[in-house]
Amino acid sequence: MEKVRRMSLDCEPLDELLKGGVERGVITNFYGASGTGKTNVCIQAAASCIEKGGNALYIDTEGGFSAERFLQMNGNDENHLQSLVMMEPTTFEEQKNTFGKIEDVVDRENIDLVIVDSLVALYRIKLQDEVSESNRELSRQLSVLSKIARKKNLPVIVTNQVYSSFKSDEITMVGKDVPTYWSKCLVKLEKISENRRNAVLRKHRSRPEGIEEEFIIETEGLSRAEKRREEEII
């Protein structure tokens, strides 16, 4: 019998990929290149959580969150914005201070979902000057998220950027082993066309690596993609 509780994203293909949604008590990491839909997944998750009567903490490090987009995804109910707690650090030092407050915010605001979009944007800037210190701090922040997830039995979603190796075309997550270690679930997002995306499971505690699902980014949110015609694949 399935004992692990999950939070549905209200996106059928992603919920199927994740065996019912994002798992409580662990970190789920959506990563991919720019424009692959990471922020749309985060906003959809927040809207879905609040639609069910929950409260969401959204840490936006890139200025990518849009209240208009959030309202499109939850039926334009402006009252739902009151259940969304926003934190918007603009430097890695501010992000460090933000993480020092997360546990208190989760307790005070009765948070049901924590989202960090993106975990590594500000870290990537800081990394240019202080590699070792930045890596230690990134690991500390992920340990804070992991502790909150376990202690409060909450789903935690983070997004991760990627880069290409100079020696090959291999796509690697920023932070490499650090986010890989702390994230119990890794989902790689890929852009297929203007509004079509592919999600590939790269790490999961009970599902095989490599399975994938396609979804469509629409005005009202994320939905199942119709099966591509053979000529589209070619």
What does this structure look like?
With 234 residues, this protein is α/β, with parallel strands linked by helices. It has 9 helices and 13 strands. It has one domain (6-233): Rossmann fold (3-Layer(aba) Sandwich), CATH 3.40.50.300. The chain has a 9-stranded mixed beta sheet. Strands 1-2 form a two-stranded antiparallel ribbon. Strands 8-9 form a two-stranded antiparallel ribbon. The longest helix has 22 residues, at 131-152. Mean pLDDT is 91; it is low at 229-234.
Total beta strand runs: 13
The CATH superfamily turns out to be: P-loop containing nucleotide triphosphate hydrolases
User: From the 3D coordinates, which CATH architecture would you assign?
Assistant: 3-Layer(aba) Sandwich
Q: What share of residues is helical?
A: 25-40%
CATH fold group: Rossmann fold
CATH class: Alpha Beta
> Radius of gyration from the CA trace?
17 Å
Enumerate the strands of the largest sheet in spatial order, edge to edge or round the barrel. 5-4-6-7-3-10-11-12-13
Number of helices: 9
Biggest β-sheet strands, sense, barrel: 9 strands, mixed
Précis, in short:
With 234 residues, this protein is α/β, with parallel strands linked by helices. It has one domain (6-233): P-loop containing nucleotide triphosphate hydrolases (Rossmann fold), CATH 3.40.50.300.
